[in-house]
Request: fold
Amino acid sequence: MALIATLNFNLNPAPPKQLLHPHHRLIPISLHLIFGAQHQKDYPSLNAVARRAEVRCCSLSETATTILWSDVQVKKQHKRITKWSLQDLTAAGLVLAMHVICLFAPWTFSWRALWTAVSLYAITGLFGITLSYHRNLSHKSFKLPKWLEYMFAYFGAQALQGTPMDWVSTHRYHHQYCDTDRDPHSPVDGFWFSHMNWFFDADSLVQRCGGTDNVGDLAKQPFYRFLQRTYVAHPIALAILLYAVGGFPYLVWGMGVRIVWVYHITWLVNSACHVWGYQSWNTNDLSRNNWWVALLAFGEGWHNNHHAFEYSARHGLEWWEVDMTWYVVKLLETLGLATDVRLPSKASTQRMSFNGQ
Reply:
């Protein structure tokens, strides 16, 4: 007979009581340790808080599998229904190549190479992905002078996560269809699909959501059309520059290690932040606030806050919710470079709270 031990604990402990607002809902973590069993079984949660936090749009049958250490159930494991396209093979090849390059990291380490990787992590991850692609272009949380907007967007292109138009289109669809059958990357289709496998299935995105006709604001600008046509050339140019300056070690750390690091941090927002953490707002989806993803992703881990107020330039809404991207936006606003900075109103916070107050 299989020995089954169920442990209930929380990977994201509650803040001190004086910091915890009445509308916060903690998501319990359940770990089922199964010894001698071939398949994991589902056991109903006994925690009333978990039942209150269940997302109505993702209500699943008792036979659905549960993602480890969470109460999130997988409705169906995503299965590819079309053959691999050239676009899918190219994306998979690039991601695989970056991971292979990382294997050389131990033999090419130097402090200068590491500093190069860390610097590019901040430039492409903070300024490129979180500030530009996400908060500025996807949600229009603030305005920048065009020269600065384009520079930050160019930094994002160097993260090798797609063109601004493609990235923004996918993200807007994610908010439009969050955690439903049409979400481009939801854990209800499986954790690894939400984390990275969606990136290699372009047909699935088209079938779920359609084309990139939701980014007309970017498509009408010549700069973004230029990046759309010449996208791959720009990371290649950076790789050549790094090799010319620092040889193979700079290529390994400045491209391979840095790109893979930013890949998985960005993808953790799609996967981990819809599985582990706490919910502060009644968003009717699986979005969670996750402190450790927030630290790695420059504040993007306060994901339930973001889904409640997607237009907000600030994701860390409490003083203890560290949000590096917001601090940069605030600095740019102080310098007169960021304008029309949008934040949640009192009325919107009352409307999105669990108790409606």
The radius of gyration is 21 Å. The CA atoms of residues 269 and 301 lie 6 Å apart. The chain is about 50% helix and 5% strand. The beta strands are 3-9, 25-26, 29-35, 65-66, 73-74, 278-279.
